[in-house]
Amino acid sequence: MNTATDIFTPITAGQLQLKNRIWMAPLTRVRSGVDHVPGELMAQYYAQRASAGLIIAEATMVLPETSAFMQEPGIYNAEQIAGWRKVTDAVHQAGGQIALQLWHGGRASHPALNGGKTAVAASAIAIDGEVHTPSGKQPYTVPRELADDELPAIIEGFRQAAENAKEAGFDGIELHGANGYLLDNFLRDGSNHRSGPYGGPIENRARLLLEVLEAVIGVWGSQRVGVRTSPLNSFNSMQDSDPVGMTRYLAQQFSQLDLAFWHLMRADFAGVQQADVVSAAREIYQGNLVTNMGYSRDEANQGIANNQFDAVTFGVPFISNPDLVERFRLDAPLNEADPNTFYVPGEKGYIDYPTLEAEPA
User: Which residues are identified as catalytic?
Assistant: First the structure.
């Protein structure tokens, strides 16, 4: 466990030596084009934010035809690897460190985004609501339930993506086990109604996540691998009957793996499900606990000082404040983010937010 006083204290996360505990959360920004290839614009965006202790880059497809956002990045072909190499080089030249979030959209994928390919999931249960597609909003479709014998190919997809992330120059990886995407879809009992080795009790529902973790650890070693979970978040029509119990089970399993960090979302975007999962995780987990969702600078400082967690990831504040670390250090005002530019291509609302130095006097 790291001894810390505040968010500016350096931290050792496995083999990652990080300059502060103000990390950049993974943020889908759909700037990768229709081929899902990162470019110069993304390199500039991430390099602007290199003062973060660790940048966790956005959800990135490990396999083709799993898109859920139209123009999110991938890491499954040579062109994407080369594109990400531009990003990692730019971040490193700016003095930062960056991990890639490996992701499978699962039932949040849509045929209209994937050449007509049916989405896959733990069970054939659709997400409520609609998704943005090139032809406008469309209802989510009922996914196809994956057979047990299909899962090794998905695990291999994550393993190969971990290899590709290493080739692209990342400092580590984070496994996306949150927010209703494929691994979380297996994990929570509201969306996993299957029987057999991957359904039923938490020991079975967590099996796929843990098998994928072991596969990517085989590539990177455990101390450059993190994992993100969201026991409470109802986004993408998710719920679990015992989120605290699930958190406790995962804390035991993750402790045995000696991960670089566990990235835990503490709340529900919609406020529907409520519980204290952070304390449950902290009580059991023997590693770096990184929390997320709506923290202010002062709350983050207080939590670290009280040893409730070891670091905090900030999302929206990093969108509009590339120099968030310096603003926190000076207790300076923050730029307001413009949600209208979160998910549209181009520079506006992406690389044009001013730093303190660039603001007019």
Answer: 181
